[in-house]
Amino acid sequence: MTPWVKRLLIANVAVFLLQLAYPMLTGYLQLVPATALRTPWTPFTYMFAHGGLAHIGFNMLALWIFGPRLEARLGGNRFIALYLVSGLTGALLSIFTPYAAIIGASGAVFGIMAAYARYWPREKFLVYGVLPVEARWLVIAFVLMALFGARGVGDSGTAHFAHLGGFLGAAIFLYVMEHSRTRVSTVKSGAVRAEVQQPAAPRGDDMKRWATIPRSELHEINRSEVDRLLDKISLKGINSLTPSERAALDRFSKQKS
Fold first, then answer.
1. pTM of the model
2. Residues with catalytic annotation?
């Protein structure tokens, strides 16, 4: 269990227990897009409130399944930013149902699922414990369900636009993150070429540092990610790593005791 996944699980469960103890609290936490300017906290609080045990159960199970590996890859700050951006974009798209009362972490959680499918598209999950489905097809199925629901073909009690907003928010967040990182890398590489007296660290040094990552001290999820990246280097060479993958290895290499 990674830090932000644990905090989000605790926060959502705690709010749900408060809702059970004080039912009127839900009215203060829910988002009604038409009145959001008068209740500006609700685009944030709606994603921590839920409408029943099955509702919170599905969302927290999905967060527990998809969240830890993604947080390990992105780092805590980017992970929580992705979660909040997805939830807030879900609130923004809910303007298409202006008078609906909306609660639930689904928009934020669907953003986490979309990001997971971006990095591990062929990872398989057993739907209902029986049917193996790759992450990319699972996310596509949820997108299609939200699209059909938003057009009135689904359950009117489901916040389909919030779900679509979660997917859209994740797509925008990942695009900006990856392209800004590429621009920074380009600027830095240009600065290194301009300043001959400050050469870049030899890539052999990177390999030596990454080879000494304390795997036994890592969480199982992080350990499998390190193994995957080192295997990728063995098969395709160090140049095959993306900037985010190099950053992940650098982050793990700093965890020495």
1. 0.71
2. 106, 163
pLDDT tens per residue, range 166-182: 999 999 999 998 887 65
Region for 52 from its dihedrals, namely left if φ exceeds 0, alpha if ψ lies in -120 to 50, beta otherwise = left
Domains (range + CATH), the chain:
3-174 (1.20.1540.10), 201-257 (no CATH)
